[in-house]
Structure formats: C-alpha cells, structure tokens
Amino acid sequence: MFKIKTYNAISSKGLERFNPKTYEVGGAVADADAYVLRSQKLHGEPVPPSLLAVARAGAGVNNIPVGEYGQQGIVVFNTPGANANAVKELVLAGMLLTTRGILPGIEYARSLGTMTDSAEMHQLLEKEKSRFAGTELRGKTLGIVGLGAIGSMVADTALALGMKVLGFDPALSIDAAWRLSNAVQRMENLPSLLARSDFVSIHVPALESTRHMIDAAALSGIKPGAVLLNFARETIVDPAAILQSLDAGRLGRYVSDFPEPGLSTHDKCIAMPHIGASTEESEENCAVMAADQIMEFLENGNIVNSVNYPAVRMDRTPGATRLAIANENVAGVLGSVLSVLADAKLNVIDMINRSRDELAYNLIDLSSAPDETAIKAIGNVAHVIRVRVI
Ligand SMILES: NC(=O)C1=CN([C@@H]2O[C@H](COP(=O)(O)OP(=O)(O)OC[C@H]3O[C@@H](n4cnc5c(N)ncnc54)[C@H](O)[C@@H]3O)[C@@H](O)[C@H]2O)C=CC1
Ligand SMILES: O=C(O)CCC(=O)C(=O)O
C-alpha cells in the first residue's frame, strides 16, 4: 500500500487516479511515501523518513526546498503547462480591466439599483457613461518577460488581438522556442522591453535571480503610463518601488495576483487573491498530471517532469526486479553498485543512468530479487543517497 498525503484543495479528478486498493490518500495520512500539494509551504517543515516524492500540482515550486529534498533522495515534480491557459485568460482580463471602465462602470450601475423608473435610469446612465470610456488593446505593445508555457500563450492571445508583442527570455528552452510565435519580437534585455511596452506581463519563476527584477531602477526606464501585470510571484517585484512609481505617475497601473499590504488598496492597483490557476479545468489538469507522475515514480521508478532529478524512463522487463538508486553525481558510484551486484551473483538485464547537476539516478532491472544484505551493501556505497526495490 502506498501512502499519499495531500495538502490544499486537490481536484478529485486527480485523486481518483489512485487505486484505493493500492493507495491510501488524504490530508491526514501519516508516514507518506509522497505528497501532492499546491501552494503549501514545505520550507522548515519536518521531513518524514518515508517521503520519496513530492508533486506540485502547478508550475511554481518556490514553496518547496527543491535542492535540500534532492540531497535527501526526494524527487520533486511539477506539472508544466497544465495551468497555463487559466493564467493566460486572467492576464487578458487584467489588461481589459485597466483599459476599459469595467470595474467603476459596474460599481456605478450598481449604485443606480435603487431607482424605480427604467426610462429615467437609462437617461442618466447615457449621460454619465463617458466617465467610463477607455482605450483598445489593438495596436498597443505588450512586453512579455519569460516566454515559457504561460508567456507563449499570452503572446498568442495578444497577437490574435492585434497587439504588437515583444519578449525577453535569456534562458528560453528549445521546446519553449518551438512553441513561440515568430511574430514575437525578441528583446536583448529587460530595459529595452520596458521602455517600449504599453503593457508588461511577467511570467518568470521565483528564483534568487528573478528576485526584485522589477525594482526602482527598472521602473525608472519603464514607458510612462505603462501597465505592469504580475501573475508570476510577489518576490519578482519590489513593492516599495512599485508604490513609489505609481505615486510619481510613471507606472500607470499595477495588476497583481499577489496582493501586498499598502499596495493592493492603491487606486492604481488591481489585486487578486492568487487565482491565476483557479479554474476547474486547470485544477483538474494539474491534479491528474501530478497523480500520474507520482504513480509512475512509485510503481516503476520512472521520472517525468521533475525539477530536481533527471528525466529517466525505462520499460519494465517482465519478471525482473527493479532497483531505483539516487546518488550524488560523482564518478565511480555506478561501477561500485555493479560490483556489489556482481559479488551477489545478481544478473543485470537492463539499466539506465542519468544525471542532472549534482544528482544522478539509475534504474537497474535484475533477473532475481536482491536479498537484504545486497540492498544494504548498495546503500553503503559512497555517495548513494537512496535505494528502492520495486
Ligand atoms: N498566478 C498563478 O496562479 C500562477 C503563477 N505561475 C507562476 O508563473 C511562473 C511561470 O510559469 P510557466 O510559464 O508555467 O513556467 P515556465 O517554466 O514554462 O516558463 C518560465 C520562463 O521564464 C524564463 N525565465 C527564467 N528566468 C528569467 C529571467 N531572469 N528573465 C526572463 N525570463 C526568464 C524561463 O527561461 C522560462 O522560459 C511560475 O514559475 C509561477 O511562479 C504559474 C502558474 C499559475
Ligand atoms: O495552485 C494554485 O492555485 C497556484 C498555482 C501557481 O501559482 C503555480 O502553478 O505556480
């Protein structure tokens, strides 16, 4: 029986993937083999020795100590792209909320709710509606910082609306580059993008390198009156600098999925309670993907979409016993493991070894099951972090 501890609201469509005959799943599960979570912060939390994997049903993994967990042999997964469409749609809504008098217009229409005469009401609102007039997105320039799963979708939508799209992403992956429309004009640096954009939408991960990437210096070069949209993370902007730029009349509006004290109530700020990915469809996509990845890892040792271990996949050899070994990525570990197997007269049928930065991972199919002594000997090989028999 595998044990899965869940945190946050995980869509039942995902949790239903776990067969109740072989999986115990729930928020109160103890000694879990794996966690499935959304924004639950794991930094500083005790780690049960049983924990083998964590799946973030979503994109951002800044709530998980990814590096530390890797050193302990805990594989951390996310679900790339599974909630990108939901965020894209809210970014579009964010832009429209700043260009049209939608929010004050709704408020005004509500304020007329006590009137009883329909003709009088229509006469009044026709007289007043010019206060809520706006501008169009077509023909405006959108600068996108981070052109991954969300950034590329936002780009497609903006292009379809007749906007000009600029993009900045110095770390763009080859897969992401394939997804990106060639109508997106590539910027060599952030200041060039900020100076030319009427709207700037940020879609980078929360990393040390992206912390406060929108600070006072960046804002001093932003196009006067520009709208900044932050559906990425609170750490990416310096809130004091945003406030100062709004008050100084340089930054036109700030739309954020991450309200900050002192900023979210500002007249020129539209803040939402981190609902970028909160759609039925996204929650299902993320939960299904997270559940499938965890099952594939627990049952077969295969790793898909990890953020700390390499992608490793090997079909099961019928009748074989599988060893899954996580180790530090130093020379000689695999050789020492194979010597232990040879000494124990265990025949290797198939194997795969992959590394990623300081970590490596191996799947080894054996024609017969190793005994406790052999497993212990492998666990004692220098730099081996974790051994599992599957
Ligand atoms: N508001 C919400 O509910 C949600 C927020 N997010 C946030 O959005 C972020 C992006 O999500 P995805 O697009 O799915 O991730 P992704 O990994 O597909 O794309 C991120 C892109 O940012 C680029 N990047 C990294 N550092 C950069 C830098 N310094 N300058 C410019 N580009 C840089 C990467 O090369 C990559 O192409 C997540 O990490 C998460 O923090 C994601 C989903 C929902
Ligand atoms: O699970 C959520 O609602 C948050 C989604 C998110 O921020 C992410 O996927 O990075």
Automatic annotation (TrEMBL):
Family per record: Belongs to the D-isomer specific 2-hydroxyacid dehydrogenase family.
Regions crossing the membrane:
none
Recite the UniProt keywords alphabetically: NAD, Oxidoreductase
Q: Which Pfam families match?
A: 2-Hacid_dh (PF00389), 2-Hacid_dh_C (PF02826)
Q: Give the protein's recorded name.
A: D-3-phosphoglycerate dehydrogenase
Q: Which residues form the ACT domain?
A: 322-390
**Organism domain of life:** Bacteria
Pathway, per UniProt?
A: Amino-acid biosynthesis; L-serine biosynthesis; L-serine from 3-phospho-D-glycerate: step 1/3
The enzyme class is oxidoreductase
Q: Function of this protein?
A: Catalyzes the reversible oxidation of 3-phospho-D-glycerate to 3-phosphonooxypyruvate, the first step of the phosphorylated L-serine biosynthesis pathway. Also catalyzes the reversible oxidation of 2-hydroxyglutarate to 2-oxoglutarate.
E.C. number, please? 1.1.1.399, 1.1.1.95
Matches recorded under InterPro entries:
ACT-like_dom_sf (IPR045865), ACT_dom (IPR002912), D-isomer_2_OHA_DH_cat_dom (IPR006139), D-isomer_DH_CS (IPR029753), D-isomer_DH_CS1 (IPR029752), D-isomer_DH_NAD-bd (IPR006140), NAD(P)-bd_dom_sf (IPR036291)
Enzymatic reactions: (R)-2-hydroxyglutarate + NAD(+) = 2-oxoglutarate + NADH + H(+); (2R)-3-phosphoglycerate + NAD(+) = 3-phosphooxypyruvate + NADH + H(+)
PANTHER family per UniProt: FORMATE DEHYDROGENASE 1, HYDROXYPYRUVATE REDUCTASE
Task: Offer an example of a GO molecular function term for this protein.
Answer: phosphoglycerate dehydrogenase activity
